[in-house]
Structure formats: C-alpha cells, structure tokens
Amino acid sequence: MRKKQHRKLNPKNKTFDKYYIINYLEMGKGWQAVQAERDESPQEAGQEDWDDWQETAGATAVCLFCNQHSVETTDLLEHMKQKHEFDLDRIKTTLKLNFYKQLKVVNFIRRRIHQKMCFSCHQVYATQDALVGHMTDSKHIQDIPDNTEWDQPEYYIPTYENDTLLFGLPDDEDEVTVSQTPVIAEETKVDIQNSILRDVHIRSSLSVT
C-alpha cells in the first residue's frame, strides 16, 4: 500500500493570501517572516524576547496612511494632520470618543487601509498609495462613517500585532480635573439666648484662677 503524501502550499502562490488572518501579521512583515519567527527554537526565541525587551523604549508608532513612523505619538498625530489632513483629535472631540472608541476607530481604519478599501465610499484600489490619493483628493479621509460600521466588538482586536499607535492614544478619563472654585463655609447661626454659657455657675467653673 502506497503511503499517502502530504503536500504543502506553494508560499509564492498569492491565491491563498486572502484566507490568511491579518491579525497574525506585524507591521512591515509578511506572513512568511512571521511564520519563520514562530518556528524558531526556544533558545532563539529567548534571545529574541530579550532583544525585544531592550528595544521596547524605542518602539515606534506607524502612520495610518503611509510608512511614516515616530517614537512620539503626538508627533505622528501631527504628521497625519499636516500630511493627510486627518485630525484624530478633532474626530475624537466631534464624535465624543472615549479611549475604547478611539481604539475601535483606529483598528477599523487600519483594517480598511490593509484591505485597500476607502472607508467612506468602499471603493477598492490596487495599491495603498492609490487608495490614500483618492481619499485625500475626495476628502473621504476626513469622513468617518456611521458608528454602526466601526463600533463593533471585532475592532477591539488590533489589525496588526504590536500596533504601538494604540498605546499612545489620549485617555481623558485618566486626567483628574481639580476644581478652582473656592469653598466657602456655610454660616451657622448660634442661638445665644439658649447657650449654656449664660449660666453663671458654668462660666465661673470655666474661668481661669
């Protein structure tokens, strides 16, 4: 009886890429690179973990629309505002987004950009550059769709593993607002007529000899 042969998919065949879960990917890495890292030996993994720990302080956040990256999230938000006319602070204020809803919006946009799909008109483009060009020219980049599209539990999950931008999102709930209004003590009316200090004997017992 002939032994059944087990064959593996050709890694260069792009036909099956659409079935690969994008949450297994990392920014700037293809699935083959990620798979190679997962198949490494425990000794190599330990060394890699140590290297990652050493580089944590230098982790950079990546722009939603291009490859621009920055260690400071505020610098990256300013880049998106100036370069792509995407103002996350304005969107947060207009839509009254708390931290978790900001998280969903960012993950939603990441997913659509990965799919090369305009999140406003749902048109799909061949390249990310073509998509971003369309969204910029049409001002769709400023048009966040109705929350029925992005306010879904699935967008709690990052599109890319280790998306540093998510860690730098502002959380207004962490800010403690200190009231500047002075506190004025309530006036208390004292009934002098019924005070025990009107008793001569009590006053004499309290007097200092």
Summarize the structure in words:
By secondary structure, the chain is an all-alpha fold. The chain has a domain at 62-171. The protein contains eight helices and two strands. The longest helix is centred in the middle third of the chain and has 16 residues, at 99-114. It is elongated and about 110 Å long.
Short description:
Residues 118-140 form the C2H2-type domain. With 209 residues, the protein is an all-alpha fold. The chain has helices spanning 31-38, 42-55, 73-83, 88-95, 99-114, 128-137, 147-150, 200-206; strands at residues 61-62, 69-70.
Give the helix proportion (percent range). Answer: 25-40%
Order of strands in the sheet with most strands: 1-2
Order of helices and strands: HHEEHHHHHH
Shape: elongated
Mean pLDDT: 77
Which structural class should the secondary elements be placed in? mainly alpha
Total DSSP helices? 8
Beta-strand portion reads under 5%
> pLDDT below 50 for ≥5 consecutive residues: which ranges?
175-179
N- and C-termini, Cα separation: 120 Å
The biggest beta sheet reads:
2 strands, antiparallel
Radius of gyration: 31 Å
> What is the number of beta strands?
2
Topology of this structure?
Elements: H1 31-38, H2 42-55, E1 61-62, E2 69-70, H3 73-83, H4 88-95, H5 99-114, H6 128-137, H7 147-150, H8 200-206
Family: Belongs to the ZNF277 family.
GO molecular function: zinc ion binding
Keywords: Metal-binding, Zinc, Zinc-finger
